[in-house]
Amino acid sequence: MASSAVPRLDPRTAGSPGVHAALSVIEHIVSHGPLGVAELARDLELPKSTLHRICAVLVERGWAVRDERGRFEPGLRALSVGSRASDLPIVTGFRHAVAPLLERHDETVCLAVLDGADSVFIAIEETTKPVRLMTWVGRRSPAFASASGRVLLAGRPAGAVDALLGTVPLVTPTGREVARGELHAILDAVRRAGFAENDEETAEGLYSASVPIVNGAGESIVAITMCVPTSRAGAARRRALVDDLRAAGRTLARDAAWLTGPYAKRI
Questions:
Q1: Alpha-carbon gap, residue 9 to 20, rounded angstroms
Q2: DSSP state, residue 146
Q3: What is the C-alpha separation between 57 and 79, in angstroms, rounded?
């Protein structure tokens, strides 16, 4: 089972429970697939009979495909929706804002959103250097451990952070256990500084720094993260990277002031 918290279906939720169930299945196979019916039933706490009906419709409509082992993966319709990500206003603004950053430092820069208890990359501008972070659009990291996740969590009250993380084990991908009190202290420091740094907590040999992008309503909607091998991230260069990253963040914040979320479009 995935370490991230899986959204549960609340029978009191307004609207059709069948719609909520179908969307939960799509979201789960996109994030964690390929998955069989038994795994979906366990993770989503739905009856297998319900899942058989939902998955049959998803396959028929092209939102899912079933492999030779009976597991479900995203279908062509789901993939075609993802292919339009580069046209989102926030992604277009990101590419414009980080162009000077790439020209000056030539290090990988990512745009991230908070999805449940995870930070997810939705756009990436790659370095031309041969030694780099191997990453991709859709890559997930525990929000409490990643620089991008921490700046986005820092935009929420402490109570909301506790509710979001719930019983998620706070053990970083590199094996360090983070006490909940320590996490709140980290987030308090991020709020004061306006940025987060991460030194080998999501991957060995990786330094990352991140800034939140705050819209006109004061909401942290996305984060810009720079990912640099520690061999190229001495103390002086880290200061320069953070300074320029914050400048890029201010540029994107001006462009994104009207957005209410990373997928919003101007009406």
A1: 7
A2: S
A3: 17
The amino acid that residue 178 corresponds to is V
- Of the CA atoms within 13 Å of residue 227, those in its CB half-sphere come to 28
Same domain, 123 and 247: yes
Interatomic CA distance for residues 245 and 111, integer angstroms = 12
16: phi then psi, degrees, rounded to nearest 5? -75, 125
Euclidean distance between CA atoms 96 and 48, whole angstroms: 47
pLDDT, tens digit, 9 for 90 and up, residues 220-263: 989 999 999 999 999 999 999 999 999 999 999 998 887 765 44
Residue 241 has a CB neighbour count (10 Å cut-off) of 22
Q: How crowded is the C-beta side of 100, counted as CA atoms within 13 Å?
A: 13
Return the DSSP state at 88: S
Is residue 215 a contact partner of residue 258, using CB atoms and an 8 Å limit?
yes
Q: The domain that contains 193 carries what CATH number?
A: 3.30.450.40
Give yes or no: residues 68 and 112 share one domain. no
pTM as predicted: 0.72
Alpha-carbon gap, residue 267 to 159, rounded angstroms: 33
* pLDDT at residue number 17: 72
CB atoms within 10 A of CB 76: 11
CATH of the domain at 40: 1.10.10.10
Residues 32, 135 within the same domain: no
For the stretch 121-134, pLDDT in tens is 989 999 999 988 88
145 and 234 in a single domain? The answer is yes
Parent domain of 33: 17-81
